[in-house]
Structure formats: structure tokens, C-alpha cells
Amino acid sequence: MTETIGKVFGDITVSADGYSAGLDQTEERPFGADGGDGTGSKLHAWMFDHADENRAEIDLILDAGAFIMGRNMFGPVRGEWDRPWNGWWGEDPPFHAPAFVLTHHARDPEQMKGGTTYHFVTDGIEAALAEARAAAGARDVAILGGATTLNQYLAAGLVDELRLHIAPFTLGAGTRVLAGVPPLQLEQVSSRAATAITHLTYRVR
Amino acid sequence: MTETIGKVFGDITVSADGYSAGLDQTEERPFGADGGDGTGSKLHAWMFDHADENRAEIDLILDAGAFIMGRNMFGPVRGEWDRPWNGWWGEDPPFHAPAFVLTHHARDPEQMKGGTTYHFVTDGIEAALAEARAAAGARDVAILGGATTLNQYLAAGLVDELRLHIAPFTLGAGTRVLAGVPPLQLEQVSSRAATAITHLTYRVR
């Protein structure tokens, strides 16, 4: 009897020069200086301004049974948890599943509305993945970012599938996907162009 | 009366992490350590092993009326021209048009078979572009690379269109396209997936 387990995928939006966020993240600007006007993420316009056209790619992310993210993706708080912060996604986050946040600072889980619970993992990427796998069961585990977190998982050989959404501008500086990752052999699974984004899916060999 | 002039396009093949060549270029290995077995360019397999499928993209490159390349794309000779070297492309290169090679070391033009003449330009990227435009007339000027050369043209605002061919592997090190280039606003003109390559075309605003 074969046990079905989900895959581990990384899913991240990058500029044409490979940055997933600009410099100078703040509470008002989760993606830093990403070329937008500061009212939203220019990188993620494909998700928010063109959601209908990109529904398949959005659903593939949200279908995961558990999520992993780095602390800087979770929020702008650095060091100790010195103020209330429950992510950028409001009281009813879109994950509807356990979401594991990598941090050096322990914190009790936060149960949100709609099935999302934030768990704070202080013992590294492999421990977070083990917890996420256990939570996801037969479903996939999504590594959402930021690039620093995803790069650690890629370098450790823990990612089965890499999805890049390439936005039509360059940033010139910021946090770069695939930086510091040893050479990877990829298999191009699919590539789809939408109005102002190109979706690339690779199997990592 | 409007004078028709061609556009200036950059056309380059990159790894999924944005490198157009690996480290350690040699005469036997024009693209350095690009992950191949040393007998050819792994980055450019789409051109050579799958030419039929990618005929449109190849023709778009070769339709240019003049070409520009950096000296390291032209060959492995560094410093003075201390040995005979007429490019990697044999006696009848595929360009069939003037090709301008940026170098710090003056050299007389080399007329090859089939209409290709190599001109060696020692007074910088703008001078090379002016010569290429004059040679191309109403046709396009192609900036072929390497990344260092293309990045200089992009940073100087001299490129109208950027074509990236994204190969399904990462290199982890090498010469990176768009590195050191100030933020650019791009317009996604087209995106096409072939078997093991994704072709992206951007208009540079």
C-alpha cells in the first residue's frame, strides 16, 4: 500500500531581474521599494488587479494544506515580538490552513478566522517542514517566501516544485530568488503568459 | 516625411537565475561552466538541438541588419590580439551582416564569408551603436551579449526591446543579465513556452 503524500512547492513572484521584494520593507510597504506607488504591491498586481485572469495560479497556491513563510514575509516586526502583529492578511487570512512562520523568537500560536492558525517555529527550516507536512497530510506544502526562506529550502534540496511569476519590470536591488543556491537542474512543467505576468513552473530534480 | 529606423533589441539566453554564462570561459567552452558536458552550450540547446521548434525566435535574431557584441562573446582572447581569432562561428558566420565587437584593442575589420564583417570598435558603446545603426539602415540592431555588454546598453537607456530566453536550470554563478541596471519599466510584448525554454519579449519604456 502506497502512502500518498503531497509535494513541497515554492511559489513566489519576482521582477524580471529576479527580486521578490525591494529594499526598505515597512509596515505600510510589505514588499519594500518594489516600484509601486506605496499603496500596494506592484509585484503582486497580477493577484489583486487581475485575479480572474490568474485564478488557476492563485488557486494552486491556496490549495496547499499547510504554508511556510519567513518572518519578514509575515511582518515588519524584528527582534522580540514587541507589539501585536498577526500578519498582513487581516483577521481572516486567505490560507485557511496552518501557516508556519520561521522565527528566532518563540511565540504561542495565533488562531485566526477561517481556519488559518499561525505557528511560530524556532528550530529551523527542517523542523518547520516536518510540522507542515504533518499538518498537510496528503495535500501539498507551500513555501511562500520571502526569497531568503525559499532559497534556504532550495539549497537544502527540500523543494519538489518551483513556481515563478515574472513581473514586467526590474527592481535593481532587493531580495533575490535563487541567490546563493547551488546549481539546480529543473524540468519545465508549464509556462503561461497572462496580460502582465508570466507563470513558470519547474520540477526540481 | 518620416524616416523609418529599426529598433535596438537585446537578445540573450539566461538560466532561471539570470546568468547568461557560467564562470571560466575557455576556447573550448564559450559559455564557461554552464552545466553542460563541455561539448556545447547547455544554455543554447534550444537553438541548436531544437531549432525547428524555435525557428521564429532564431529568425528574429538573425533578421537584424547589424549586430553588436562584447569582446568576451566574440572570443576567449584577452588583452592584445596575440593570436588569430575570428569568432566562435567559423568561416561563414550566421550573421550575414556587419557585426561590431567592443574592445579596447584596435584591429582591422575581418571580412568573413556570407556577408559577415567583424568591425572592432574601441571608442565605446555609443559609438558602436551609431556605427551599427548606420550599417543597419531601416533594419534592427541586435545586441547579442554577453550580459556585461547588454547591461551597459540597458543602463544607458539605449535598448528598445529586451528578449530573454529562460533555460530550465540554474547556474548559481557567472555573468548575470540585468545586474547593476537601474530599475526599468517593461511592457510584456509576448511570452511563449517551448519544450525546454521560455521566450519572453519586453518593450523597454
Automatic annotation (TrEMBL), chains A, B:
Name by which UniProt lists this protein: Dihydrofolate reductase family protein
InterPro entries in alphabetical order: DHFR-like_dom_sf, RibDG_C, Riboflavin_Biosynth_HTPR
Taxonomic superkingdom: Bacteria
One family name in Pfam for this protein: RibD_C
Domain Bacterial bifunctional deaminase-reductase C-terminal: 8-194
Native source organism of the sequence: Paractinoplanes rhizophilus
